[in-house]
Design brief:
419 residues; mainly alpha; two-stranded antiparallel sheet; 62% helix
């Protein structure tokens, strides 16, 4: 990946010369994430974090250690010596913390959690940091779990199969990961389902290392669903979920779409502005009420995860991605948008407004999808849904998941009123 120019996918007859994202910048962002996560491990790797105001935001040490191992694992594949070295340093810093007598005791008491506990151990082993004694004690628990039928969600089974595959264990067939084997229902606004999709893609593709994975649906359809979910999270400035969804392109070895490339640029700009990708969990009132070490710990606990997923996104993009286009600001005027006004535009508009007319035209589908997704909000607005759908048709935009969702919802409304 270089700083030369390329022409991304066309919209209509427009050609949009766009510079490619520098590989060195992706690598820098990975190393920045490693620095943030290493500091969080130092703070929370032994006892986790308890959030008195919102207990649900607390976490145990095993969570941050497993996530740190995932970042190190993805970053270790980046074809850059400095990034690889930083990833190995992070891995070594957590190695003793994940292979403890307490971890083995937890496996003995709760063997069903073996695949959660084993994630960092297995990833560190794959990175060349084995521990034969811990391995010999932990594997029998994994074999025992695999010998029993488990009624678990698809994401849990996919994670289990991913770890078992890396651990060279024999796994029973688990079936075809529900959320990847059927189209998403975009009329149902489920953040949990969106996260489920991102986690399944991480596990079944091994963060992009496994190409050509059979998912019972054409990979182009899965990517279209991922982009539809990206539209909603980008408009809501849910940058943690945005970053996880954007990993879908390098994980599936798909060429970046203009919408995905623009979303990456929005996240990169936000990271550059704040020093770390902003997280919606951080409560300014709570932060202002804290001082000293507690203030620092709260800020770090609430923000480390967005830094981590941005690091994993940049690592997979730097390792497996097609060239990523950079949507750069145009110093010229601000021509009219190619589609009509979107109601109450989100935080991405500042980046969009600085683009030239050709690049805006390239993003016409994204703008239209945002309008439809808002119209299908809670509660849906039938007039707005119809208007946004008609606008997309008049503009000649190719049909996609959001247009189909609008059509299906309007058909249901008409059928209900006709009874």
């Amino acid at each position: 990946m270089s700083a030369r120019t390329a022409t991304p996918r066309q919209f209509g007859q427009s050609e949009v010369p766009t510079s490619l994202w520098p590989a060195a910048d992706l690598q820098r962002r990975v190393r920045n994430a490693i620095t943030v996560v290493a500091a969080a491990v130092a703070d929370f790797g032994e006892a986790g974090y308890s959030c008195s105001g919102r207990p649900a935001l607390g976490f145990g040490p095993e969570k941050i250690l497993a996530e740190a191992a995932m970042l190190a694992y993805a970053a270790s594949r980046v074809p850059d010596a400095d990034t690889h070295s930083a990833a190995m340093d992070l891995a070594r810093s957590i190695a003793t913390a994940v292979r403890t007598p307490e971890a083995l005791a937890d496996l003995a008491l709760r063997p069903h959690r073996v695949f959660k506990r084993a994630v960092p151990h297995v990833l560190l082993t794959k990175m060349g940091l084995p521990d034969d004694e811990f391995n010999s004690r932990a594997r029998p628990f994994a074999d025992r779990v695999l010998s029993h039928a488990l009624d678990e969600p698809g994401t849990v089974l996919a994670e289990r199969d991913w770890v078992a595959r890396l651990w060279a264990l024999t796994t029973p067939a688990s079936g075809g990961w529900n959320m990847l084997s059927r189209p998403l229902n975009l009329a149902i606004d489920s953040r949990e389902e969106a996260y489920g999709v991102t986690h399944l893609l991480m596990y079944v593709t091994d963060f992009g290392a496994r190409s050509g994975v059979a998912c019972q649906r054409p990979v182009e359809e899965i990517a279209a669903d991922v982009e539809a979910l990206l539209v909603r999270s980008l408009d809501r400035e849910d940058y943690d979920l945005c970053a996880e969804l954007l990993m879908g392109w390098p994980e599936l070895r798909m060429a970046w779409t203009p919408g995905a490339g623009f979303a990456f640029a929005v996240l990169a700009e936000a990271e550059d502005r704040h020093g770390v990708l902003p997280c919606g969990n951080l409560n300014a009132v709570v932060l202002d009420s804290l001082v000293g070490q507690e203030r620092r710990r709260y800020a770090r606990a609430m923000s480390y995860h967005t830094a981590l997923v941005m690091g994993m996104l940049c690592a997979t993009a730097a390792t497996y991605s097609a060239p990523l286009a950079t949507y750069r600001a145009d110093p010229g005027g601000l021509p009219a948008r190619p589609l009509g006004e979107v109601r109450e535009w989100g935080g991405w508009r500042a980046a969009y407004d600085r683009l030239g007319e050709d690049q805006r035209r390239e993003l016409a589908g994204l703008v239209s999808d945002i309008d439809i997704s808002r119209a299908l909000g809670d509660p849906p607005d039938a007039r707005a849904v119809h208007a946004a759908l008609q606008q997309a048709r008049v503009a000649g935009l190719p049909p996609g998941p959001w247009q189909r969702a609008a059509e299906q919802w309007l058909d249901l409304v008409v059928a209900a009123l006709a009874r």
